[in-house]
Write a structure and sequence with these properties.
The protein has about 350 residues and is an alpha+beta fold. Helix content is about 30%, strand content about 25%. Strands 1, 2, 3, 4, 6, 7, 8, 10, 11 and 12 form a ten-stranded antiparallel β-sheet that branches. A two-stranded antiparallel ribbon has the order 5-9. Helix 3 runs antiparallel to helix 4. The structure holds protoporphyrin IX containing FE.
Length: about 350
C-alpha cells in the first residue's frame, strides 16, 4: 500500500522535534544521575565529596579514602574446599596470582600510622578463565553504620566544625556505639602481617548444583598478633607499617588463611554492623601468600580500583546495600584520581626508551 507523502517542511519540523526530545531526554538523564534534580539524593559525587571537610581540598591524585598504602604481589593457594560453596574457578585447587595493597582508612596519604584506627587490604585474584575476584576488607569485626546513607551522615558529622556533631550522630545511630567501643579498646599491632581483615559485607556464592549460600569472608594472619601501645607505634615513626612489612616480606613470604563463613537462615545479611554468631559454619578455602612488596607510587596498584562488585561467576552481590554504593564511590574516586595524575607524578618515567 502507498503511504501518503508528507510535505518536506513538516518532515523537517518532525525531525527537529524528535532531536529536541532526544537531547532533552539525555540532558534530563544526566541531570538526574548527577543529582541536580534531587539535591537530597545520595550520589557517588556527594558520597565521595564528604571525605573532604567543607572548605578543604583533597590531596589530588590519591584515593579519596584509604589513601595511604603499600602495594604487593603474591599468590592465592586454593585448597579446593571452597568448591563446595561456589563454582568460581578460584576455588579449584591451584595457585592464582594476586595483586594487593595494604592500606590505612584515611583520606590523607601522609597520615602518621598511629593516627589511623582502621587498616585495610585490597585484593585482586585472577584465574586462568579470565575472571577476577576483587575485594577490599578491613580489620574491625563489624562496620560502624548500617547503610550507605548513614555512612555519608557519619562523614559529614566527623568533618563538621560543630562541637556536638559526632555526639548527635551517635545518638541518632545507636549501632555506632559498638564500633566506638571496638575503636577505643581493640589492641593495636605493629604490623599489617598481624592483622585479620574482614569482608564485613555479605555476598552470595553459587555452587555447581546452582544452590546459593550467603557468605562473608575473612583472612586470618599466620603471624601471631603482638599488641603494641599506640604511643609506642607513634615512636617508631609515621611510616613504620610500610617499612616493617617491606622488611618482613623481604625476609619471608607472609601468609593468611582465607575463611568463608556461611549465614544461617534468618541471619542479618543486609547490615554489616551485625556480626554473625560465632558458631556459624566456616570453610577454610586457601592461603594468601604475600611474596613481594611493590612500589606504591609507580607500581601496579596505582591504577587499580579494588571494586568489591568485580566478582567471578559463582559469586554475586546479596541484599547488602553497601557493595553497590561502594562500587559507585570507588569509581568516582578512581575517575578523579586518574584525571589528576599530574598532581601525583610518577618518579619513574613510563615512556618506553
Ligand atoms: C558506603 C560506604 C563506603 C564508601 C563510600 C567507601 C569509599 C571508599 C573510597 C572512595 C575508596 C577509594 C577507592 C579508589 O580510589 O580506588 C575506598 C577504598 C577502600 N575501602 Fe571503602 N568505602 C565504603 C565502605 C567500605 C567497607 C564496608 C569496607 C570494608 C569492609 C571498605 C574498605 C576499603 C578498602 C580496604 C579500601 C582500599 C582499597 C585500595 O587499596 O584501593 N570500604 N573506600
Amino acid at each position: 500500500m502507498l503511504q501518503p507523502r508528507r510535505s518536506p517542511a513538516r518532515s523537517v519540523l518532525g525531525s527537529l522535534a524528535l532531536i529536541a526530545v532526544v537531547i532533552g531526554g539525555t540532558a534530563a538523564a544526566f541531570a538526574y544521575t548527577a543529582g541536580w534534580l534531587s539535591p537530597e539524593r545520595l550520589t557517588p559525587t556527594r558520597l565521595v565529596g564528604a571525605f573532604t571537610p567543607p572548605g578543604g581540598t583533597p590531596p589530588l591524585g590519591h584515593r579519596r579514602n584509604h589513601a595511604k598504602g603499600i602495594c604487593f604481589t603474591g599468590i592465592f593457594e586454593s585448597n579446593g574446599a571452597g568448591a563446595a560453596l561456589s563454582q568460581a574457578q578460584v576455588f579449584s585447587r591451584g595457585e592464582y596470582p594476586v595483586l594487593g595493597r595494604f592500606n590505612l582508612g584515611t583520606p590523607n596519604p601522609d597520615a602518621a600510622d598511629a593516627t589511623v584506627r582502621v587498616r585495610g587490604i585490597g585484593l585482586r585474584i585472577a584465574t586462568p578463565d579470565g575472571q577476577e575476584w576483587r575485594s577490599a576488607m578491613i580489620d574491625p569485626p563489624f562496620f560502624p553504620v548500617s547503610t550507605p546513607q548513614a555512612f555519608y551522615e557519619m562523614l559529614i558529622a566527623s568533618g563538621s566544625k560543630e562541637a556536638n556533631a559526632m555526639k548527635a550522630f551517635a545518638a541518632a545511630h545507636p549501632e555506632f556505639a559498638a564500633f566506638e567501643a571496638w575503636a577505643g579498646s581493640a589492641p593495636w599491632t605493629g604490623s599489617y602481617a598481624e592483622e585479620r581483615f574482614n569482608s564485613l559485607n555479605s555476598f552470595i556464592f553459587v555452587d555447581a548444583s546452582g544452590a546459593e549460600h550467603v557468605v562473608r569472608w575473612s583472612i586470618l594472619p599466620a603471624a601471631q598478633p603482638v599488641p603494641i601501645a599506640k604511643d609506642e607505634l607513634a615512636k617508631r615513626g609515621p611510616d613504620y607499617l610500610e617499612q616493617e612489612i617491606t622488611e618482613r616480606v623481604r625476609g619471608a613470604p607472609q601468609r593468611w588463611t582465607m575463611v568463608v563463613t556461611v549465614a544461617n537462615p534468618g541471619d542479618p545479611t543486609a547490615d554489616p554492623t551485625k556480626a554473625w554468631p560465632e558458631d556459624r559454619r566456616t570453610v577454610e578455602v586457601g592461603t594468601l601468600i604475600v611474596q613481594q612488596i611493590q612500589a606504591e607510587r609507580d607500581g601496579p596498584c596505582r591504577d587499580i580500583n579494588f571494586d568489591p562488585t568485580v566478582l567471578p561467576s559463582g559469586m554475586r552481590t546479596s541484599d547488602d546495600p553497601f557493595p553497590a554504593a561502594r562500587s559507585a564511590a570507588y569509581r568516582r574516586s578512581y575517575d578523579l584520581r586518574t584525571a589528576e595524575a599530574k598532581d601525583y607524578p610518577r618518579t619513574v618515567s613510563d615512556k618506553k626508551p
